[in-house]
Amino acid sequence: MFTAFARFADGTAEQIASLDVLGPAWAQDGVTVWVDLEAPTPEEIEQLRRISALDGAALDACGRGDPRPRIEEFEHYLFLVMYGAFAPREGTEFQPRRVAAFCGSRFLVTIHHEPLRTIAAMRERCSKIGHQILARGPDFVLYDIIDMMVDRYVEVTEHYERLVEHLEEESLDDDVDAGIVQMVSRLHRELLELRRAATSKRDLIAPVAKGEFDHISENLGQRFTRLRDHLVNVIDTIGTLRDRLDGVRDNYHSALATRTSEVMRVLTGYAAILLPISAIAGVYGMNLRSWPGTEHPLGFWIVLAFMAAVGATMFLYFRWKRWL
Asked: Are strands 32-38 and 70-73 parallel, antiparallel or unpaired?
């Protein structure tokens, strides 16, 4: 999907309908352009290269390549590869979404293969007040996009924080099952991936915040520093969440050990009750005529009543001791 907005030297702004229309607009003096390509075809990439004269190797890197962020400065523009975060739907795992950006003195080009809420929000803003947004310059538009991406990292972290709180409460239930361990393992992996994405984005923003690139206005240095600090907080929160997940696992194992101990205690108590009864039954089950009462017509019932009395006495004693 192609989207583009242009602000011309006279202060007017308009949305560009297609790449064919983009060419003449791009060539005008004093024009500021933001171009966004979502899931572009090779033909669209090639047409954009001819219009913009962007580096071919950098454009090729905008595809599904090496999943590492990068920042590279060319003579007339800055090239960035970043990753955005989104809260996974139920049954899916966290996967960062890749977006590449070319930022020059009068243009910003963003390329991505999956829909991004941050880009969609910027499209909507430009459709309403594009002349104001583009008047600040392409680097400000890039900053706004990165700012919204960082906000998404904060939202995703809050999403995982709610999940961890739910698991903490569930792990304290007496009937917690083994499924919580699988959930903890999955969240551990997702939080690790989220931490890697946030760390890489922090490292990407750090040199920009220091003003190391000519294509980013010095006035944005403090703003990028604020974004970096937000990412540092996100990374710290993720570390805390992973520690809390370890606590959830410990709670489950503690509850499991407690239940096992309770079962063993009860079984041991009943085994102790049955032990003297089994001994009596074993003795009187011996095929010997010398045992007293073996010839008595009520001998069986007398022994059975004695065994029941012994069992009941031990059961009541164990209950009094609260062993059962």
From this structure: unpaired
Backbone conformation region of residue 196, classed left if phi is above 0, alpha if psi is from -120 to 50, else beta: alpha
Backbone angles phi, psi at 186, to 5 degrees: -65, -45
Q: Are strands 107-112 and 32-38 parallel, antiparallel or unpaired?
A: parallel
Domains of the chain in start order, with CATH, are 2-255 (3.30.460.20), 265-320 (1.20.58)
Encode 145-168: b = buried (16+ Cβ within 10 Å), e = exposed: bbbbbbbbbbebbebbeebbeebe
In tens digits, the chain (324 residues) has pLDDT values of 888 898 888 888 888 888 888 888 888 888 899 999 998 888 888 888 888 888 888 887 776 655 578 888 888 889 988 888 776 665 455 667 888 899 988 899 999 888 888 888 888 888 888 888 888 889 999 999 999 999 989 989 998 999 899 888 888 776 777 778 888 888 888 898 899 889 988 998 888 888 888 888 888 888 889 999 999 999 999 999 999 988 888 877 777 777 777 777 777 777 887 888 787 777 776 665 666 666 666 767 777 787 888 888 888 877 787 776
3-state secondary structure 282-305: HHHCCCCCCCCCCCCCCHHHHHHH
User: Terminal CA-to-CA distance of the chain, rounded, Å?
Assistant: 70
Gyration radius of the chain's alpha carbons: 36
Q: How far apart are CA 63 and CA 83, in angstroms?
A: 13
How far is it, in rounded angstroms, from Cα 236 to Cα 241? 9
CA distance 23 to 287: 109
Contact 142, 33 (CB under 8 A): no
User: Got the DSSP string for 42-68?
Assistant: HHHHHHHHHHH---HHHHHTTSS---S
Residue pair 223/141 in contact (Cβ under 8 Å)? The answer is no
Q: Which residue has the tokens 């002349």?
A: 131
